[in-house]
Design brief:
- By secondary structure, this protein is an alpha/beta fold.
- The chain has a single domain, classed as Ureohydrolase domain (Arginase, Chain A, 3-Layer(aba) Sandwich).
- The protein is 29% helix and 16% strand.
- The protein contains eight helices and eight strands.
- An eight-stranded parallel beta sheet has the order 2-1-3-8-7-4-5-6, sandwiched between helices.
- α5 links the parallel β5 and β6.
- α1 packs across α8, α2 runs parallel beside α3 and α3 runs parallel beside α4.
- The two termini are 29 Å apart.
- The structure holds manganese (II) ion.
- The site of manganese (II) ion (MN) has 6 residues, from loops.
- The site of manganese (II) ion has 6 residues, from loops.
Length: 305
Amino acid sequence: MPEQKFLSLPNAPLDQANVVILPVPMERTVSFKPGTAGAPAAIFEVSDQLEFFEEDGGWSPFKHMTLTVTPAFDEEESNEADLHARLTSRVASLPADNLLISLGGEHAITPALVAGRMREPGTVVFLDAHADLRDSYEGSRFNHACPARRLLEQGHELLMAGVRSVFEAEVNLVEQDPRISLFMDWDLRGKGQWDSFLQKVSSLQGPVYLSIDMDVFNPAHVPGVGTPQPGGFLWYQMVEVIEALFATSNVDLRGVDIVELVPEPSRVSEMTAAKLLMKIVSFWGQANGFDFKEMTGSQMQVEYE
Ligand SMILES: [Mn+2]
C-alpha cells in the first residue's frame, strides 16, 4: 500500500510526531452494510478538501504540531485472538507521549487499541448508537457488537452516550454494573440531560480513551455507516463533547478511535470523519499548549495558504 497522508502533509518521522494516525482497515464481522475497510483511505482522500486553518480554535494546528500517518495495520492473521493481540502490541510499540488517533475499520478493534494504550484502569468514553455489550455475537467474542463488554473485562469504566439500540440483557447489565454510565440517546433530549452528560465528560479524571462509532451521528448527517439507526448526534453536539473533554487539564487522553465509517458516493460521511479528526487534533493541541510552540522539521516547508 502506498504511503497515506492526512491533509497531504508529508509524514513526520514517527518518533517526532505530535499526532499519530494509525489506519486499521479491519472488516471481518460486519453484519449489515459492508465497506468499512475502505474508511481510512476515504478519509485521507477527502482530507485534501479541509483547510489548514481550524475555525473554532482560530489557529492552524499543523503549523505548530507534527503529524504522521503510520503504515496501516494489516490483518493477514487468520486467527482472531492472534490478530487482536498483534494489534495491541503494534499500538504498545508506538511512542506514548503523543495523540494517537486510530481509524477503523469495524468497532471490534477498540479493545485491542485500548489495551495497547491503557494498562491501568481508566475510562472509555464510548459514543455509539449501539451498546456493543454483547458477550459474543454470531459466534465471536471479537465481533463488532462486543467491544464495550471486552473493555469492561479489561477493568475500565464506560461512559456511553447516544445509544438507541439495545437488547434486554444489555439493559440489565447496565443496571447491574456500576462501572457503566449510560446516557441513552432519547434521555439526552430530556431537560438538563445533555448538560449533565457534558459535565460528566468534563469532570473525567485520569486515563481516558475516546471511541467514536460514526453511527452515533444522525444518519441523515452521516449515512455512511455499517449499522445506521434513526436519532443520534448532530455535528455541533459532537463538537461540544470534544470541547468538554478538553475543558479541564485533568484528562490524560491516551487515544481516540473513529470507527464503522462506510464510504459512500456523497462523501459527506468521510468528510465529517476527516473534519472530526481535525477538530480533535485542534482541541488537543490547544489543551497541550502547542499553539504557543514553534514547530521545527520538514512540515514547516508546507505552503499553508
Ligand atoms: Mn459500535
